[in-house]
Amino acid sequence: MRERLEAALAAGQDTALLRFTLGDLLVREGEPDAGCAHLRRAVELDPDYSAAWKLLGRTQLKAGDDAAARETLSRGLDVARRRGDRQAEREMQVFLKRLER
């Protein structure tokens, strides 16, 4: 799967969904830095992609990058609220509360 995604990216198919999927896969494979790079690109390509904001923030939180996670989750929370994405909104609120502890 990873090879197909990277091949699509190399062929110029740079979309938010492709970046999100590749970022998610890399995070799951234990490569959070590489995953974050793709997730950051996903939200650049589609600033309204609340799932990408959520995954990027969660990954930054797990990596101990609290400042980046707070920024990402705050921005993602605004997006989720604006779009009416209640599930992403609730999850990002939980992640932000973890940062407050």
Write up what this structure looks like:
The structure is a single chain. With 101 residues, this protein is mainly alpha-helical. It is built from six helices and no strands. The chain has helices at residues 2-10, 16-28, 32-45, 50-62, 66-83, 86-100. Helix 2 (16-28) runs antiparallel to helix 3, helix 3 (32-45) runs antiparallel to helix 4 (50-62) and helix 4 (50-62) runs parallel beside helix 6 (86-100). It starts with a helix and ends with a helix.
Helix content: over 70%
**Helical stretch tally:** 6
Helix/strand order, N-terminal first = HHHHHH
Specify the overall morphology.
Answer: globular
For the sheet with most strands, the description reads: none
Please report the distance between the alpha carbons of the first and last residues.
Answer: 38 Å
The whole-number mean of residue pLDDT values reads: 95
Which quaternary structure do these chains form? Answer: single chain
Q: Strand-residue fraction?
A: under 5%
* Strand segment count: 0
Structural class: mainly alpha
Radius of gyration: 13 Å
Low-confidence parts, pLDDT < 50 over ≥5 residues?
Answer: none
Short description:
The protein has 101 residues and is mainly alpha-helical. Helix content is 81%, strand content 0%.
Q: Which characteristics define this entry?
A:
101 residues, 6 helices, mainly alpha
Architecture blueprint of SSEs:
Layout: H1 2-10, H2 16-28, H3 32-45, H4 50-62, H5 66-83, H6 86-100
